[in-house]
Design goal:
The protein is an alpha/beta fold and about 260 residues long. Helix content is about 45%, strand content about 15%. The protein folds into 2 domains: about 160 residues, 3-Layer(aba) Sandwich (Rossmann fold), CATH 3.40.50.620; about 80 residues, Alpha-Beta Plaits (2-Layer Sandwich).
Amino acid sequence: MSLSPALDRLREILALPPGVAVAYSGGMDSGFLALAAARWRGADTVRAFFVASELNPAGETDRAVALARDYGIPCEVLPIEVLSLPVFREHPPDRCYHCKREIFTRILERVPPGWRLVEGSNLDDRGDYRPGKRALAELQVGSPLDEAGFTKAMIRDALREWGAAGFIRPAMPCLATRIPFGTPVTLGNLRQVAAGEAVLTAAGLAGARLRHHGEIARVEVPATDLARALPLVQASAEALRRLGFRFVTLDVEGYRQGSMNP
């Protein structure tokens, strides 16, 4: 589908009364969805909800709130401690389901009566392992970008057309996705991942993934960047060891979406 029909369809979906609440992460997909709702509906019947939790890298809440403000999107920050959930800490293969169920239930408690809650999944997300989608279906959370036929490339094009390139950034999945299933999730290993990826970004590897295997930090970058990445990872090794890792490796297969999936 081309961009224009997809935009028309999205506008129809978001026009339903009385209002739209958007689960907003500050990323490209949910940012575009929140911007589209505010652009077409007006601020009075739109609200974005940003969940601030242990899964957010340092500074992410402030960045997301500032972006929403800059683009005229009403935004409410909702603090949630996901590590208070025993099943989250235990990290089973369906951890995402339990986390999404808790988070979206909490957001729904804040949504004005009659408003529809939506989130930013799109066509490119269909092939990935996403047990959280079951929670969305159970709670009747909509996915208008998927319904309207948007891919990530189309979202980027629309944001550029609208002069909202500030939302265009590499995907930033939940930090818990860097930890193997069955390994308990703790505040300590989440902080190690966040700090380690900040080291890699500062070294010139924005978007790199740091997979946490206990004493081993396994770095993933796109396969096309492997040659460039090797000296940068080597230069970052001492900083990563200071975070508590004993060994630092660069995955020679490159970044694969869902490489930690069961």
